[in-house]
Amino acid sequence: MLRNCLRKMSTTVQTINYPQEFVKFLNESHSPYHAVDNIKTHFKNNGFKELIERESWDDKVLKRGKYFVTRNNSSIIAFVVGGKWAPGNPIAITGAHTDSPTLRIKPISKRTNEKYLQIGVECYGGGIWHSWFDSDLSIAGRVLVFDKKSDKVVSKLIDLNKPLLKIPTLAIHLDRDVNQKFEFNKESQLLPIAGLTIDSEKKGENNDKEDIHNHDDKLSNEEFSSIKSIIERHHEQLLDLIAEELSLESVSDIEDFELVLYDNNKSTLGGINDEFVFSGRLDNLISCFTSMYALSLATETRIEEETGIRLMATFDHEEIGSSSAQGADSNFLPNILERLNFLKCDGTDSSAPLLKSLILESSAKSFFLSSDVAHAVHPNYASKYESQHKPYVGAGPVIKINANQRYMTNSPGLVLIKRMADKVKVPLQLFVVANDSSCGSTIGPILASKTGIRTLDIGNPILSMHSIRETGGAADLELQIKLFREFFEAYSFTESNVVV
């Protein structure tokens, strides 16, 4: 039986074209909400059941079961329970993040200047903002809509998926020094244009530059609104597009929205031999994608003898520090780990709470692969890299190391992951930032300090990190999936062999 299962899974791995599947995933994940929705769909198609945080999990989580839970629809945790799971046992965890640097539409976005319609945007994260100029920009995110049938406000995903906006550069004739240094004001000169006021005048839209609405102090209670209406805050043409896309009866059904901009040019494979992936949001949808596939492939192999739990977590808001209700610095993962260690998963969970020490035992036995992209060596800026640590695109996942603990890798973790990589023949690369360069960080240090779980930082190498258009390696996708799958399937059987 096990041999047939292994043969079936092996065939599945060979028939999946990961680069093409990843490009499809990217083109359908233009916001964190879309990314999580696509991950949910993938898991549902692979037999995972959805759990709700606000409900009891007693009698719902069983051995050999597959589950996922979301928070804010922008973070998701999925896991598979081993056939011999018991509270206090090890949990193999991979972690990533769903967000990327972007421009987010402001709560009051309506702008006009020199007969152009403009959209007010806010910088999210540390983007390379000059890369956003002259790109064809579209809009995606979620919209809160009043549903008359249920008398409730519901959340709907939206992706307008057409070139709507542009942040034009100034002609070189008017800025002869632009090629020496491109400088701009992020508040006043990073404003996208959305159309011409001439067209809106024909439609009767108010085009006063300040867009100030004079409220009547004598409004009745029925007319009173504590916040300006959605039509006052945003261009009506934008709202019309949203209403049409969501098949709403009226623009007034829109209560609010959280919308981000993205490069409307399709994600694609590129290079002479299709060895590259050209796209935005590689940081960090690469790790979301590879963790998702690795876990769904690791749901059958050795699951009967599995004493632990195999778990992947992807969080929102890493690019802005992770301090939110759904970020890695929240209680999302610690709460899920606590709930799992209170569940025997045999249908008798509600009898009595288990000892708190079991959570601590489980954390001490567990391991966390913090997976975020790494810096590939840039051929035009090779001097920016530490001379002996230059990762290459297409040469395998990169283990990230930092003496100042910006990354969590240490020797025991490195030995552990090396053994697994050797078994499945996945090459690994090492990265250390040069002493005269600043070093980024990941969710690794945050969760290691919150949980005490042993952690290693690893990720696939990319170029142009935080640009609107990044470059990754097509071959690296399957290599990381193979490594993560081996980690999920083998960790609980080998964790006691490397003890500190």
Short description:
This protein is α/β, with parallel strands linked by helices and 500 residues long. The protein has helices at 2-15, 18-27, 32-45, 197-202, 230-233, 236-245, 282-297, 332-340, 357-365, 411-424, 443-451, 474-494; strands spanning 49-51, 66-71, 75-81, 91-97, 102-113, 116-124, 137-147, 152-159, 193-196, 254-263, 268-270, 276-279, 309-315, 367-371, 374-375, 398-400, 429-431, 454-459, 461-463, 470-473.
Task: Provide a descriptive summary of the structure in words.
With 500 residues, the chain is α/β, with parallel strands linked by helices. It folds into 2 domains: 2-100 and 280-497, Aminopeptidase; 102-263, Roll (Aminopeptidase i, Domain 2). The chain is 27% helix and 23% strand. It contains 12 helices and 20 strands. The strands form 4 sheets. A 9-stranded mixed β-sheet has the order 1-2-3-13-4-14-18-16-17, sandwiched between helices. A 5-stranded mixed β-sheet has the order 11-12-20-19-15. Strands 5-6-9 form a 3-stranded antiparallel β-sheet.
